[in-house]
Amino acid sequence: MKYGKIISLFVGMCLAHHAIAMTPSTDTNNTKIALQQQSGFFRLSYDNISMPKHMQDLGFLGINYFADITPWIYGGVGAYGAVNGNQGGLFVLGLDGGIHHKLTQHWWGDAGLFVGGGGGKASLVGGGLMVKPYVGIAYDFNWARVGLHYSYISFTDGQIHSSQIGLDVDIPTNFYYITSQDVGNSLLNIDDIFINNNKYLTYQRNDFGVLLQAYKPQSNVRDLNGNIQSTTIGLVGAEFDHYFTPHGFAFIKASGAFRGIPNGYMDVLGGVGYHLILNSYGLALVPQFGLGAGGGSTVDTGGGVLIQPQLGLELPLTKQVAARISGGYLWAPEGKFKAYTGTAEVLYHLDLATESDHPTDLVSALYRTQSWRIGVFNQTYLRPQRTVSSSRSPDNLIVIQLDQMLTPNYFLIYQAASAYTGLHAGGLATGMVGLGAQTHKIFHHRLQPFIELLVGAAGGG
To answer: Please, where are the H alpha helices in 282-321?
Structure first.
């Protein structure tokens, strides 16, 4: 699909949270404040979907984050990707929500609905709209809930419609923040931050990175049409690292092609890594091992599973920014795609406040806050140009956008979008980053003009 005019229509939600970033400062504007807790959970799910026309079944892996709106009601965002079958590159992005309740000491009941957009091969998914109602039961191990669900997955104007029993793993997690009334207190003394339940203040190290990648296929790699695939694929993406020990971390990264491949390729990988400091300058060796899903266009990833080991060097540029260069190897065990990979990345250190059961060694000093905003909205391509039709009918995409507020008027943007209606639009996806500016609120603080400039990669459909 070629580019057309775009208009963004905000029909969803926009929420703001203000995390305490554990970066010492020398300023002295402090106040007393309570650290708030938002409970929630990550959900990993797997469904085996029956495909039409006697095609091989589709293995569908889902990753969702849910916030507990009330003890009964939860809501959040999620994504699904093909990891088995012959639909490699099929991804879906959307909203999910439901109700759950503790039935007995260890058993939970659950029911909900996912609605989103995506696809990989438009002939099967139509415009891209996918719905998934589900009901399930899970056993609570305290550290996680493991259970089964019954679901119906349907691409409403496509050919995929399937009922199945799937597997869920819920991992409880808490997010800590300050209320919007305390946003003006951008610098806080650690002695004046209160935590309930006799807990102690500590922090979790996290890194967020924007990256450029290059995939150089091996000389004998062939695409889905049987042709030699020799062109280097250029990709842009983002990575999030969460440290669970001082040196070990889990990561998730998503990338989309912007050159070297027609009509879109993307992948999402998660895994583990290690940060080994080599010298007093902070130069570090960073091995990583990733496992995930990917595909699109004529890239032969089989069912979609990808494996990527890589080794990188990371060098601090400032106290909060670092650069990382990595080299590795990517291959699809169920397909023919194999490639050498190179990655250049700029990382932003984001150490977030949390709680501990034991006293910590944080010094009494001032720390700053970081404001965030998440938005979910519709984006309409008014007159897109298509490669398979002369029709200029509109396409609609569901968009999830995260804004990192640099000041009250300027912010960084991280955005992902996926089509849910439109002629042959299923599988159209975009990933972009950018800058935004906004004025102060007007009309009794109910309206706020803004402007944004984004750049990224798109393809599919």
So the answer is: none
- For the stretch 313-354, pLDDT in tens is 999 999 889 999 999 999 999 999 999 999 999 999 988 888
pLDDT tens column, 359-384: 777 766 667 778 888 999 999 999 88
- 264, 276 Cβ separation under 8 angstroms: no
Do the beta carbons of residue 116 and residue 130 sit within 8 Å? yes
- Half-sphere exposure of residue 273: CA atoms within 13 angstroms, side-chain side: 30
Tokens standing for 344?
A: 């250049």
Structure tokens at 197: 């339940």
How far does CA 337 lie from the centroid of its chain? 24
Tell me the H-state helices in 90-203. 122-125
Q: How many residues does the structure list for the chain?
A: 461
Could you count the other beta carbons within 10 Å of the beta carbon of residue 336? 19
Burial grade of 188 (CB within 10 A; 0-12, 13-18, 19 or more):
buried
Dump pLDDT digits (tens) for 204-255. 889 999 999 999 999 999 998 899 988 999 999 999 999 999 999 999 999 9
The angle at the Cα of 259, spanning 437 to 341, to the nearest 5 degrees, equals: 100
265 close to 259: Cβ distance less than 8 angstroms: no
The partner residues of 214 in beta bridges, in order of sequence, read 234, 342
The Cα–Cα gap between 72 and 208 comes to: 32
**Confidence (pLDDT) at 27:** 47
Give yes or no for residue 70 having a pLDDT over 50: yes
Q: What is the 3-state secondary structure (H, E, C) of 4-67?
A: CCEEEECCCCEEEEEEEEEEEECCCCCCCEECEEEEEEEEEEEEEECCCCCCCCEEEEEEEEEE
The pTM of the full predicted model, rounded to 2 decimals, is: 0.86
Phi then psi dihedrals of residue 362, to 5 deg = -65, 135
pLDDT tens-digit series, residues 9-66:
333 334 444 454 544 444 444 456 777 888 999 999 999 999 998 899 999 999 999 9
Q: What is the three-class DSSP state of 289?
A: strand
CA distance 330 to 316: 27
